[in-house]
Design brief:
Structural class: mainly beta
Strand content: over 45%
Mean pLDDT: 84
Radius of gyration: 19 Å
Distance between the termini: 14 Å
Shape: elongated
Number of helices: 2
């Protein structure tokens, strides 16, 4: 559901917006702030709550299943003109992260928190603090020099070339 306030045509001032959206599988997204139609600038507070990670795996360079949930509190200020510059500040957390088959995940993290997140798109990523609780990884070698964990972080060749794009959207 969404609310738009103070909208006029022609645009005379920023438009107030509120958005609450359910996400695939579980979780929801809330955004609140302003959109300026004349300067094409957005200034939003964004909250992500208990969002399932699984639906977004096709957009990541991973070959194995990914499960867990994410939470975030962010402030996003960005322009959607030709430059497409965005500043994002805040914190984020993933919980119950598992990579690999459900019955025997190769990588697990009970919780990982990022504080002081600073993204200046497209040029810079900064993080003040990362705290990881109960990480676990199974590292094995199947033949000389081949580690299955390493191959899980490789985008399949067809997908990397843009040949096998998913036709479904996570939102």
């Amino acid at each position: 559901q969404g609310i738009i306030e103070e909208a006029t045509w022609p645009a005379k001032q920023p438009i107030r917006v509120e958005l609450v959206a359910g996400l695939p599988e579980e979780g929801h997204l809330e955004a609140e702030g302003t959109l300026d139609p004349t300067s094409l600038v957005a200034d939003l507070r964004v909250s992500l709550q208990h969002a399932s990670l699984a639906p977004y795996r096709p957009y990541l360079p991973l070959t194995e299943p990914l499960t867990g949930t994410a939470d975030a509190d962010l402030r996003l200020v960005g322009s959607i003109d030709e430059a497409l510059e965005t500043k994002i500040r805040g914190r984020a957390r993933v919980s119950d992260l598992k990579l690999g088959p459900e019955e025997s995940p190769v990588l697990m993290v009970e919780q990982a928190e990022v504080a002081g997140l600073e993204i200046d798109w497209p040029g810079r990523l900064g993080v003040e603090q990362v705290v990881i609780h109960k990480p676990s990884a199974r590292i094995e070698r199947v033949e000389p020099g081949v580690f299955p964990l390493r191959t899980m972080f490789t985008r399949p060749a067809a997908q990397a070339a843009g040949v096998n794009r998913q036709s479904t959207s996570p939102v």
